Amino acid sequence: MKPAPFDYYAPRDLGEALDVLAEAGEHGKVLAGGQSLIPLLNMRLAAPERLVDINRIASLEPFEVTPDGVRIGALARHSQVERSEGIAAVQPLLRQALRLVAHPVIRNRGTVVGSLVHADPAAELPAVLALLGGSVRLARAGGVRDVPAGEFFTGPLESALEPGELAVSAHFPRLPERTGSSFVEVARRHGDYALAGVAAVVTVDDDLRVSEARVVCVGVGPVPLTADVSGWCERRPASTVDWAAVARAVQDRTEPEADIHATAEYRRHLVGVLAVRALTEAARHAL
Amino acid sequence: MTTRLFGERVQRKEDPRLLTGQGRFLDDLGPDALAVAFVRSPHAHARILDIDVSAALDVEGLVAVYTWEDLPGLVAEPLPLLIPHPALTHGRTAYPLAREVVRHVGEPVVMVVAEDRYLAEDACALIRVDYELLKPVVGIEEAVHSAALVHEDVPGNVGARLVQEVPSRSGQSAREVIESAPHTLAFRLDIERSASSPLEGRGVHARWDGTDLRVHSSTQTSTSVRMAIAAKLGLPLPHVEVIAPDVGGGFGVKIVHPWPEEILVPWAAMLLDRELKWTEDRREHFISSAHERGQVQFVRVGFDDDGHVLGLEVTILHDHGAYTPYGIIVPIITSTQLLGPYKIGSYRVEFSSIYTNTVQVTPYRGAGRPQGVFCMERTMDKIAAHLGKDRTEVRAANFIQPSEFPYDQGMIFQDGRPLIYDSGDYPAMLAKLKELIGWDSFVPRKGLGIGIGCYVEGTGVGPYEGGHVQVTSDGRVHVSTGLTSQGQGHETVFAQIAATELGVPIERISVVTGDTRRFGYAVGTFASRAAVVSGNAIALACRKVREKALRIAAEALEADPADLEISDGLVHVAGAPGASIPLSTVAVLSNPLRYSFDAETARAGQFAGGASFDRPPVAEGEEPGLEGRDYYSPLRSTFAAGMHAAIVETDPDTAEIRILRYAVVHDCGRLINPMIVEGQIHGGVAQGVGGALYERMAYDSHGQLLNASFMDFLMPYATEIPRIETDHLETPSPLNPLGIKGAGEAGVIPVAAVIAGAVEDAEGLPIDRMPISPSELFHLRSGG
């Protein structure tokens, strides 16, 4: 379990990093928190020729609360984001999700943006970005583009990131007024990737009727599966919405697969159970 | 200060070292050694057609590449079959490097030596092995019915078949008894594979100086590794040293020896005249070491209205993997320890050891017992359910009573000696457990269940261990024993024994284990035997030292040895504290000197006076020095016992299973250190929870292990382990001087049975397979 040989770069500013990545093209790989990449390297499942360690680039560290949400730099660690009261105040779903991400020691190193770029369909953060309609900012030598979540995740472990690009930050929109959120999942062990998980965001109007409800499912499709279930809620008061019927509609959209830990049928069943739990809790938080 | 430390909760002496990074594990040794890596088979069953190493030769830093063709003499022979048995008619072991055929994914094919491990793995990646694929044999029942053979010359893939029968008192066979019993049940049980999974994998470091070979191995038996290396490499035994450094857990897998690497690394070190090291990585450990547990059991039981078991017949298919280096110890233990604390009217057990194209099966903590206990305890629960009786009542009806010890089960145990229980009090233990968990006040409801499991564990098997104890002239006591340590706390408990026997403060006592330079005769650490066998040997050696010390001190103090006591390192006349002599001085006097080097040793100089001119300085029958060596060889195993109970909650929607409470009552005879015993139990229960709810070896039909990493092999985290409530019972063993029984494996043994019983109670569904996952419980609920 030792990686194949690679050239190691540790640029000190963004420009230098982008130059190295441009030159490396498809042979380059970015090292941030390393919580997924290092095992892949050690098991020789990945063998990039050039490894670009961005940990010394100070400009990638900050995260900030903006008028419309939260912008998180490429080097912000899970634990920093999880503990930020400022972030929790404008977008509580991040903290709700991060508490389900692995274990504290992993969260101390792993980065939010790194998790997005890794694009594991069972991971929490891609689901949060997809549910909230956030975006990822990609920089390359000579240009920057913002890619919305809906276009960013293209398949299991696949994203819109192109060779030569570096994900410099991600933007998570603020939670609207009278809106609640929730993230629930079932994992085999505390901190494992979920067998299935559901996050929900529910908004109520001035009469406390559900005006908008959206969910995202993890672990049951090639990418985070989002669904707008507002219509199913029929603008009823949250307490009278038939959440089970809503959950069935969500279930029908999933495409779970079996693996050694759970059958597809069980995963589909979990989506139903978890959708009810997530929607109910989000609606409660919205009131 | 008291030195009577036997039975005290003494803090572990080894922990400051181990917890502050001061431990020296195998990979900490030889930083400049050449590194070894292996090309291992990617196929479960294949014939090797060609090995092309040419591309690897360009790797800078490559030192050597070896295949089976390069191995000389005995090194090229199959590895030893360590424990032959007449029933093991088709025992097979692997070659150190595969010869012609590979029989499981992970079997070593090519050995690479390079300047460092990175380069060695680079070279491995460039070596091309052409294989002709053969049909893999995977799964126990598939192996029984398959026309494909793991070994061409082993028909039906059956390595061994053994039947043991214990007829009823009236001489009827179990089958006859079951036929005529008032009630009968028949069912099938399935137990999955798991593995020891120590934190530290295996590893070997070897250094050759032209005359002497020094080998470090992360092993549970350095003395036996030493003998195997000497024999394989044709070296005189006195020129081979084997040392087990700090070892990061063993749990059984490291009692297997010699591993291919334990022969190949020393062999290549000698050939290359270079220091060599191989450190196993996690993937290698999963696919190249050993697994355990996998069995299918077919059970028939006959019983009366009170739940007395009149006859029991168990037929076991035991998955032995590709090879049988450790013989059939695991299924023998399953079939004998299955009986637990019970008097079974008549018993027939038959097992077949089946070869499959998977990693070999050798003992893992519990060593066949978890399967046996699963069988017996599921049987007890099914009898109770059939009769509508409380589960503890049925168990109590079958208990061996305290007055019936020693109790002969009429079988032959894993040590080749009779299965005779030495002591125990099972009714008292059950009463304690029911109290601890609140059995009688528990109110069951849907989704909340309680379970119980009882076991008896044969511990402290022979043939022997030894101890050496030396008091040096600084008053320090140096204890050594040949068996090895993997974190159990031997440095503490052996020091407690020595402190108690010799009357010396524990701070002045040091313990060395597993170093053949210090102690050459030993068997090893396994079968919950270290405290029993080495502990008693060390006590006996201490008693020799004590006797000698009193003799020398008596002469110096002009007293009768019978009037002397030792406390706090001082020999004194009982009742006359003024008349005393330190053990350090006794040590000086024990060794008549011509040359002195300090004031203390000057007291033993030849002109110091006081010597008798009528006898030589070292009297006939005496030896210089204050030291003693003794051995303890048990007549039979001692039989510890335990009973566990758990309360579990199942989620009505997600089918998740949560252990709310876990209670243990445990009897390992006299406790040397209750804190260490409890720690052993906690760790064992944690491993048991793994086997009950999480761990399996997920082989696909091609023989690929799909979960060969800690990401997908679900060893429970601390977050999955409940608080464990423990109580002790002490029924001393009459078989050994200290009255102790083993405790190392205890915690793991009944856990799967306990959890199965509790889930069954919560769900009202039969739980006959372990482990059970939420996904499986979900499907059981929906009837499929």
From TrEMBL, chain A:
One GO MF term: anaerobic carbon-monoxide dehydrogenase activity
Record field: transmembrane: none
EC number(s) per entry: 1.2.7.4
Record bears the keyword Zinc-finger: no
PROSITE patterns in UniProt: FAD_PCMH
Domain FAD-binding PCMH-type: 1-177
Keywords for this protein: FAD, Flavoprotein, Oxidoreductase
SMART domains: CO_deh_flav_C
PANTHER family recorded: XANTHINE DEHYDROGENASE SUBUNIT C-RELATED
UniProt protein name: Carbon-monoxide dehydrogenase medium subunit
TrEMBL record, chain B:
Pfam family, any one: MoCoBD_2
Domain named Aldehyde oxidase/xanthine dehydrogenase a/b hammerhead: residues: 20-135
SUPFAM superfamilies named in the record: CO dehydrogenase molybdoprotein N-domain-like, Molybdenum cofactor-binding domain
GO molecular-function terms, A-Z: iron ion binding; oxidoreductase activity
Keywords of the record: Molybdenum, Oxidoreductase
Keyword Oxidoreductase set for record: yes
Stored Gene3D superfamilies: Aldehyde oxidase/xanthine dehydrogenase, a/b hammerhead (3.90.1170.50), Aldehyde oxidase/xanthine dehydrogenase, molybdopterin binding domain (3.30.365.10)
Source domain of life: Bacteria
InterPro entries, per database record: Ald_Oxase/Xan_DH_a/b, Ald_Oxase/Xan_DH_a/b_sf, Ald_Oxase/xanthine_DH-like, AldOxase/xan_DH_MoCoBD1, AldOxase/xan_DH_MoCoBD2, AldOxase/xan_DH_Mopterin-bd_sf
SMART domains for this protein: Ald_Xan_dh_C (SM01008)
Stored NCBIfam families: CODH_aero_grp5
Protein name per its UniProtKB record: CO/xanthine dehydrogenase Mo-binding subunit
Protein species of origin: Nonomuraea dietziae
